[in-house]
Design a protein that fits this description.
two-stranded parallel ribbon; 14 helices; EC 3.2.1.86; glycosidase; globular; TIM Barrel; 37% helix
Length: 480
């Protein structure tokens, strides 16, 4: 098999809110996810607005990386990771989000984490906002409904850019910025933007106003970052779930084409620096006011990203005039006209397992934008069982990752796509974002923790740990 580029960034991906813990330590303030309860596959997480002693909040302790970061980073080094994609919790730096000065204790924590990564020759890839907006900004200002929150985000970005300008090269502005447009579950808009929709509002208009403010915030952050260190590589991050037409019926083809506009809307603006015509036409026809201010055109044009980071977990399929209302229509990534794809398998949580879809995605994004791509999330959520010896033989995870890495190599070697790296989610078990569960495990390192918060937090290497280490050492040539 052909080799990937010599400096390919093999790594792993995590988010501060899901694995750090220490939610009220070191001067940290409450974030929007700190008021989200545990849920299950069948019971959505609740947003309680305040800490309620009658509920369990799994993100409060996560897997306690806050106290165990040296141990965990040593494990990452033993796996030979070349990079770690993680995030800086906004609320550790500005607990409420609108303080005049940052929290020095929070900055020192990330000094220590980043220094520990660099000591082990692991390149930090830092996301600025990964579902960790200060709760105060959501409750007092209305989140990204309010342009004042743009200023708060850019100030936060400037502080961490300056602090780590000689230690961190790769940055991402917002995690899965496009997921907030999926309104079937309120946690997406809440965690992305600190916004809950009101019944009386024009929901579509609010969504695009919020989106515009985040696009402005991202562009301003890029511009500030490049001023601080011109060598920074600053990217965006989208969730990309390719949309297939169910058949060659022209109406199915057009159904997929129209639905794909929401897949491309954010990167169209962040890469090209202006709104696409299909969006402007839609705003005009629906009389949507996105809150455009004089000077926004220049801000967007001057704050374009250097690379596209994206998550890839599944594909979805649409059929025009589909009226089948089955469970699949409610699954993350589905659309009103989504329909079951008979040609792909599904995970325990109903997500389509489609490695060819990753190659398709890489080609689609690269051909559209012609800038480097970075697969910053990809993985299989599954129920792992320890055998009588305390080992985990997660061959199903190995098979999943292997097929997706093979698809990546094909995109690079056969199709000419420029891919910077691959960081599977999550390199160590952590709290699931969508359900708040621990039993939905993605990691290559097991953490002894259950859905109720019980367990020793002991770390155990899974079979996939050793497999991935060999993949990294061979730069993708030895896939087992």
């Amino acid at each position: 098999m052909a080799q990937l580029p010599k400096h390919f960034l093999w790594g792993g991906a995590l988010a501060a809110n899901q694995f750090e813990g220490g939610y009220n330590q070191g001067g940290k303030g409450l974030s929007v996810i700190d008021v989200m309860t545990a849920g299950t596959h069948h019971q959505p997480r609740q947003i309680t607005q305040n800490i309620d002693s009658n509920h369990y909040y799994p993100n409060h302790e996560g897997i306690d990386f806050y106290h165990r970061y040296q141990e965990d980073i040593a494990l990452f080094a033993d796996m030979h990771l070349k990079c770690l994609r993680t995030s800086i919790a906004w609320t550790r730096i500005f607990p409420n989000g609108d303080e005049a000065t940052p929290n020095e204790e929070g900055l020192r924590f990330y000094d220590n984490v980043i220094d520990e990564l660099l000591k082990h020759h692991i390149e930090p890839v830092i996301t600025l906002s990964h579902f960790e907006m200060p709760l105060h900004l959501a409750q007092h200002y209305g989140g990204f409904r309010n342009r004042k929150v743009v200023e708060a985000f850019v100030k936060f970005a400037e502080v961490v850019f300056k602090r780590y300008k000689n230690k961190v090269k790769y940055w991402v502005t917002f995690n899965e910025i496009n997921n907030q447009m999926d309104t079937h579950n309120p946690i997406f808009l809440w965690t992305n933007a600190g916004v809950l929709l009101e019944a009386h509002e024009n929901h579509e208009e609010v969504l695009y106003q919020v989106a515009h403010h985040q696009l402005i915030a991202s562009a301003l952050a890029v511009k500030v970052g490049k001023t601080i260190n011109p060598e920074f590589k600053i990217g965006n991050m989208i969730s990309h779930i390719p949309i297939y037409p169910y058949s060659c019926h022209p109406k199915d083809i057009m159904e997929a084409e129209i639905n794909n506009r929401l897949r491309f809307f954010f990167p169209d603006v962040q890469v090209r620096g202006y709104y696409p015509n299909y969006a402007k036409k839609m705003f005009t026809k629906k009389h949507i006011d996105i809150g455009w201010l004089e000077g926004d055109e220049a801000i967007l044009a001057q704050g374009t990203v250097d690379f596209i980071g994206f998550s890839y977990y599944m594909s979805t399929t649409v059929k025009h005039a589909n009226t089948t209302r089955n469970a699949y229509n409610k699954i993350y990534g589905s659309l009103p006209t989504s329909i079951d794809n008979p040609y792909v398998e599904k995970s325990d949580w109903g997500w389509a397992i489609d490695p060819i879809g990753l190659r398709y995605t890489l080609n689609t994004l690269y051909n559209r934008y012609q800038i480097p791509l970075f697969i910053v999330e990809n993985g299989l959520g599954a129920i792992d069982e320890l055998d009588e010896n305390g080992d985990i033989h997660d061959d199903y995870r190995i098979d999943y990752l292997k097929q997706h890495i093979e698809a990546t190599i094909q995109a690079v070697d056969d199709d000419g796509v420029e891919v910077m790296g691959y960081t599977p989610w999550g390199i160590i078990d952590s709290v699931s974002f969508t359900t708040g569960e621990m039993k939905k495990r993605y990691g290559l390192i097991h953490v002894d923790r259950d859905n109720s918060g019980h367990g020793t937090l002991k770390r155990t290497k899974k079979k996939s740990f050793y497999w991935y280490k060999n993949v990294i050492d061979s730069n993708g040539e030895n896939l087992g």
